[in-house]
Amino acid sequence: MNLVITIDGPAGAGKSTVAKILAKRLGYLYLDSGAIYRALGLLAKEERVDFNDEEKLVKLSQKIKFLKLEWEKELRVYLGEREITKDIRGEEAGRWASSVSRHPKVRKALLNIQRGFLANGNVVAEGRDMGTVVFPDAFLKIFLVADLKERARRRMKDENVPFTSENIERFSELIRKRDEQDSERKTAPLKKAEDAVEIDTTSLTPSQVVDIIENIVKKKLSFK
Ligand code: C5P
What we know:
By secondary structure, the chain is an alpha/beta fold. It is built from 10 helices and 8 strands.
């Protein structure tokens, strides 16, 4: 049986950076579940599908079977032949993703694509509901948190936005709102699984966080 390590948490807590390094170090596959919702959000925006129209979004989600997540040095995301890596990044695309991901039927339609990753090898899976819904029997569950201002700064760095106090306030508010929407939805809300290990990454480097997780993995594997 292949193993899954889940990494969940709010926006900007360091999930993607940590998940990628961890997957590389362990030689596991990397599942960026946010990229799946972001791709659907992009499609909905481009095809002018109302974010409240659950049935149309479910239909649109059938196109996600053409999604390819290629990962060597960087994650590259394709829909069929079209590369959408850049189109799905940034807070705006995050907001679209959060809006389409609220719907229970949309989440259900995308479940098998996510679980399918496990057929190909051990996986580090990153998102909001990896440990609670998608992989409830995961080998190890991690929940990353960090202070809001620090999370805002990380997102601004990703998007090359200058660190003015005005921008920090603006990004903090965008992130806070997205987390609120993700935490308050009825289906698969952002929340820590009961058996998850919580790590506060505010004053840690990604490599320090990965060291902590790797040590837990090694200990667990030696007891297996
Ligand atoms: O992690 P990322 O910022 O790429 O996620 C974008 C959005 O996709 C989140 O704000 C959330 O609404 C949604 N998402 C989700 N479940 C996941 C991963 C992401 O609902 N497992």
